[in-house]
Amino acid sequence: MSITAQTPMQDLEARLSPGALVTDRDIIDSYAVDRALFCPAGQALALVRARTVDDVAAVMVFATEHRIPVVTQGARTGLSGAANAVDGCLLLNVAGMDEILEIDAVNQTCRVQPGVINQDLKTVLAEHGLSYPPDPGSVAISTIGGNVATNAGGMCCVKYGVTKDYVRAMTVVLADGTVTKLGRQTAKGVAGLDLAALFVGSEGTLGTIVEVTLALKPALPSPITAVGMFPDTESAGRTVTEFMGSGASPSLLELLDGPTVKMVNAYGDFGLPDDVGALLLVQSNAKGAGAVEELEAFQRVAEANGSSEVFVSDDPADSEMLVAARRAVGPAMEKYAHTRGGGELIDDVCVPRSALGEFFEKLRLIDARFDVEVATAGHAGDGNMHPSVVFDAGDEDQVSQAQEAFAAIMQLGLDLGGTITGEHGVGYLKREWLSNELDAGALLMHQQIKDAIDPSGILNPGKMLG
Amino acid sequence: MSITAQTPMQDLEARLSPGALVTDRDIIDSYAVDRALFCPAGQALALVRARTVDDVAAVMVFATEHRIPVVTQGARTGLSGAANAVDGCLLLNVAGMDEILEIDAVNQTCRVQPGVINQDLKTVLAEHGLSYPPDPGSVAISTIGGNVATNAGGMCCVKYGVTKDYVRAMTVVLADGTVTKLGRQTAKGVAGLDLAALFVGSEGTLGTIVEVTLALKPALPSPITAVGMFPDTESAGRTVTEFMGSGASPSLLELLDGPTVKMVNAYGDFGLPDDVGALLLVQSNAKGAGAVEELEAFQRVAEANGSSEVFVSDDPADSEMLVAARRAVGPAMEKYAHTRGGGELIDDVCVPRSALGEFFEKLRLIDARFDVEVATAGHAGDGNMHPSVVFDAGDEDQVSQAQEAFAAIMQLGLDLGGTITGEHGVGYLKREWLSNELDAGALLMHQQIKDAIDPSGILNPGKMLG
């Protein structure tokens, strides 16, 4: 009888579902990054494609025993590098835990595993006459777990709020393998600290989300649509300020600047004019005559602020085309950036809506100051703008200019009373910037909470908190 | 020249605004309790009526130096004993910090000090065409700071959510005197952990809230009103389940059981029938024809579930009378309880809306099991019910029975998948029960966070976490 010493990886494999542990270097490396640029990835020790809560707990126990970092991932569609590998880590991918566990039509909630794709959930809910509004740009490819871990937003937020507004409860696995339930199943509840809220947007630094209970809404009413043409972004921004300040409640209010519109038109025919300074895309799904009244009010405000034309339509085809045009911004910019050397840095500042006019004035100065192109789209109704810096990624000077422009945009957001990230998160990309937004007391509290809940510091180290 | 040694209280007084420190025993003792029953109060060392953020910080620094507990209070209208004195504490009362600092109509936000009375804020906002929906029963007398510290709810929640849905940012003073800003001014933001959310509902255990930025809504539309009469609470509960499960969005949906209606009628004439098993009060402020359609749908569901009569009115006077009747429940019960020996324990369970029928069936059994009276009102649309146990406070056996009935009601809430507290908080009253609702992992995390943020344990010790 001979006893063969087990390697740590064999030990881990024995604790997991068959096939969950991946040690093939090529496969591991193919999981090393999300969609952020300029975010280095370390070399992971191994990849675990978790199938069960037990798999996740086993990874945590093993990682704690061996003091190995754990980076939790879903579909890796994030834009801040939060899901990137760090050296020597276990990549804990939960995208395969993708079951919708329960749809409760009476209580208008559902329970899902973290790997469920947002759009897949929407599709199934629609069959029950229900909806889950949050709709990040990645809606077709990102997971609910990732959406919760980053508090994802989208186009619906201007009327329907962000992910955190829909999270009732969650099950998380902590660094030591403890499985715990946070939050509540009921419409209201104040028993203890709101730990579920603390985990929303925690970017894998406090634990791994293995189940979520979401509040739902009845199927949303169909919207009607308007497109406003503006000579420049400043007048479009001032229109948003005035329209939203009047108490309007559009179901969508998006802005595309002139360069973005050109990119979208080069990408596909969505019926947008080519020669505008900026476009505002607006929808209202108010009941009865409310929607028409709301878009008429928009038209008045837009024209008073210099809009050359506002086109209103109640044709559902126009509404779909409008959303398709907005959703095409991502791929259209990517295609355009490819022709300019492949560099694209998507920023994500959010400013008070009152500051949108000034934001665009000063963004113009940033654009002029650096030898890169800035094209802006965003969730204007929330003041959440995504200026993209397009540059030649093969040109060292261009890269440096792009990074400076990117930083200048964040500083502009802060200067106007806003935030460095409205919905994409901090991750690796903006970790050095967090201390520019938060004061010393808040930063210290972040570290205290991190140290308390993850005392070994193994959960997504170097992300968010730097 | 002689140097007189300063006492610690003289030292504290010198650090505070003139007159802020109160050492008169009678005055101190008059601040020792909130409105909870069966929650003992300790003897406080002194009372500080803070005027400024500096006062609050000075109290914290002094308390940390001397390891003295600090109990923060507002208007002391809470129902869980969270604001009660503990032995040797400083009572830190911030009710006098009651300025509305800014109303920003364009961004639809306001900044307020913690002592602003909820109704006073509503009144001022109405002049600007704005509203702050959360409306706890104590709306006329409770403070925004207290509302935030307990995540207060109310009648509006069924459509407009709870306090946490309106908190954008806050300034807090930590145990060591650090003043820090949490949250964001913008509509969206994900820079770091959501520490503002962690402080909402933290009941003074993590720090003292000295400023809050609230999101606002445009003035809410006027509602129309319905009252449904039911033979028993079960049929009323099933009506709520079915009506809410249909995706209805009433702006108010309250239940009063038969004994409660009798108490209200004995208190004043609000036009309610005397001989009913239960009443549902419903309002809709949907736009256009939506409100009438919604209440017609309610009527159909109510009649299908056994309602003998549903009265619908679009007369604003009826609407006001209805709300007045609901708001009269508190004083009416108090008056009735006074005739029965003065004992009244108000419970606050919240169950899934699907469980309301079963909740009332089993509540009836509890009522029968104990030699006390149970009268129930509550925010039925959210499943948040307030069964009140009425008893003779001078009779030892009655007191014991009342406490057992109170506990049985919480256990019923938990058995049905609900929570021990929907909106009143844990405080002292339910601290022993928190461990019945939360699992070991969540409880440990509570303690870890408490220890991390308040390492000396001076902030409201013995509350919430026991």
TrEMBL record, chains A, B:
Does Flavoprotein appear among the keywords? yes
Alphabetical UniProt keywords: FAD, Flavoprotein, Oxidoreductase
Q: Out of the domains of life, which is the source?
A: Bacteria
- Residues of the FAD-binding PCMH-type domain: 40-219
Q: Name one Pfam family in it.
A: FAD-oxidase_C
Entry keyword Flavoprotein: yes
UniProt record similarity statement: Belongs to the FAD-binding oxidoreductase/transferase type 4 family.
Q: State its cofactor.
A: FAD
Q: What is this protein called?
A: FAD-binding protein
What would you give as a GO molecular function for this chain, any one? oxidoreductase activity
